Amino acid sequence: MSPTSEYVVGVDLGGTNILVGTMAPDGTTPIAVRTEPTLAAEGSDAVVARMCRLVDEVIADTCAATGATRAQIRGVGVGAPGPLDRERGIIHVAPNLGWHDLPLRDLMTERLGLPATLENDANCATLGEWWIGAARGARHVVGITIGTGIGGGLILNGRLFHGASDVAGELGHATIDSTGRRCKCGNYGCLEAYASGPAIAERAREALAGGEASRITALVDGDLARVTAAIVYEASQEGDEIAREVVRETARFLGTGVANILNTYNPEVVVLAGGVAQAGEALFGPLRAEVRRRAFKPAVDACRIVPGALGGNAGAVGAIASFLAQTRL
Amino acid sequence: MSPTSEYVVGVDLGGTNILVGTMAPDGTTPIAVRTEPTLAAEGSDAVVARMCRLVDEVIADTCAATGATRAQIRGVGVGAPGPLDRERGIIHVAPNLGWHDLPLRDLMTERLGLPATLENDANCATLGEWWIGAARGARHVVGITIGTGIGGGLILNGRLFHGASDVAGELGHATIDSTGRRCKCGNYGCLEAYASGPAIAERAREALAGGEASRITALVDGDLARVTAAIVYEASQEGDEIAREVVRETARFLGTGVANILNTYNPEVVVLAGGVAQAGEALFGPLRAEVRRRAFKPAVDACRIVPGALGGNAGAVGAIASFLAQTRL
């Protein structure tokens, strides 16, 4: 590694964890990654201080590993939950963090003495998978992130599409059942109300309410409050029938949402980023079948539906890509 | 009008009518418009011959009105139902016309001796409203056309967005109720199955099945088979309560679809093109209210939801705009 190389730091700020890493601007050199719990309850000052400390540590790791100096760090890209104002670098509302109108970008720049950019976290994950992951090289890409909520990002004509006010890509809040389950956003029948992590766990608990034997119950020592989507996927992979039915249902809900995406955006790749990749073919098989049933054939034929390749790093990698895109001359 | 001006002919090919008109390339000079029934049952040869004769007549009208010669006609833009292949100028499937893999663009060029382009009809209507209609000057526009089916067009970053295989914008075939009404496309719960012209008429017939008195029944002399969306709108404007409830329901279905559009595309304008404009505030009032209930506030605040300004001419105007865009050097 040449000591004259430059590096960019990426920050993925989640409701549960902060993940920070560095890469070279060509996307080929992941140097250092650190992660810590967000501890949002401590308030925004404490969380911002923690993020900045992690950035400083990752910069130190990078310099130690490469012989670079801090002057070779170009800046910091931050991916954060929205709605946010990219131009002004402000997070409008982040319910899981309890933040309102926080000028996060300028706070980071002041404390670190480095240029910073802000971008929606699901947009970052999509951008990361497009830059060096499962959607590399495609012209039109839709990314879906499934966690506590369901987010999305749109890459159209090779560029992230933000819409008129940075809301574009809120795929978790497209209605798939107009009189269906109430969503946290206030709407009824949003995809997120059926297929987010907590929604998957909730549907598993409902399926187990009758007291049937299931591997799910064993995995949580009988404490159904501890059921998570990851545990449902694990039980499904071990062949548990109730878990498999919950996964098949999840695939049908997600398949409906993805079919809508195919009929309206007609992308080349739909990438499901994050932990959902671990669900494997038990999810992706019936999901693709549901999409084939619902979407137009020319749209189905044009599109790959794939799990992300970057796992939990997609957001930080995409935050770096977003920094590069926003600071391009 | 200078005799050195140039003109472009636009053709809007519908399942029921063909409409042909000319304009100058700056969009300011509508010269001549002619329309005739499509008579699709006569087969594709007869329909193509009819389109070409109408084009020739409109060119003659234009030359007579302006003193131009045929050499000043730059070409013909055709808007047609899809799915179609724009690059190759082929209509893959047009169910209402009974056409399969028809090379319409080249057939027109051969018969007319003029360059021609092909574009999806709903894309054309959107393009027309964006060029000189209700969405003029906006950067991100979603158009929805409501007729026998529901179509859509997306203008993103000031350009029509086609997706990977010309399917983008099939907004009528986005699911709003995953276990709902069967759609002609084979899917369940598509917006089109609730809010297309025939779906509105069908819901009115269902509402009248109990035999209640209604202005709708009077307007069709008791023959419910003759109920159309236009008659429902007319009865609603005359204060008929059953018609008003059907219109309110229609507004809720369309509002759900439009809210999905706001949360995913975040456009500046949603324009409902075609005959639906005649429904007026009885439709647009509750539609906007449903959108406010369902979509994110920053997306709602950024977006106007308006009827088209070009009425039945939107498709032909947009076909002219599409010709200009496709033949731009």
Relevant terms:
five-stranded mixed beta sheet; 329 residues; alpha/beta; 11 helices; homodimer; globular; Nucleotidyltransferase, domain 5
Describe this structure in words.
In chain A, strand 1 (7-13) and strand 2 (17-23) form a beta hairpin. A 5-stranded mixed β-sheet of chain A has the order 3-2-1-4-8, sandwiched between helices. A 5-stranded mixed β-sheet of chain A has the order 11-10-9-12-13, sandwiched between helices. A 3-stranded antiparallel β-sheet of chain A has the order 5-6-7, covered by helices on one side. The first copy, chain A, contains 11 helices and 13 strands. Chain A has 329 residues and is α/β, with parallel strands linked by helices. In chain A, 40% of the residues lie in helices and 20% in strands. The longest helix of chain A is centred in the last third of the chain and has 25 residues, at 241-265. The relative contact order of chain A is 0.15. Chain A has 2 domains: 7-127 and 313-326, ATPase, nucleotide binding domain (Nucleotidyltransferase, domain 5, 2-Layer Sandwich); 138-308, ATPase, nucleotide binding domain (Nucleotidyltransferase, domain 5), CATH 3.30.420.40. Chains A and B meet through strand 10, helix 8 and helix 10 of A and strand 10, helix 8 and helix 10 of B.
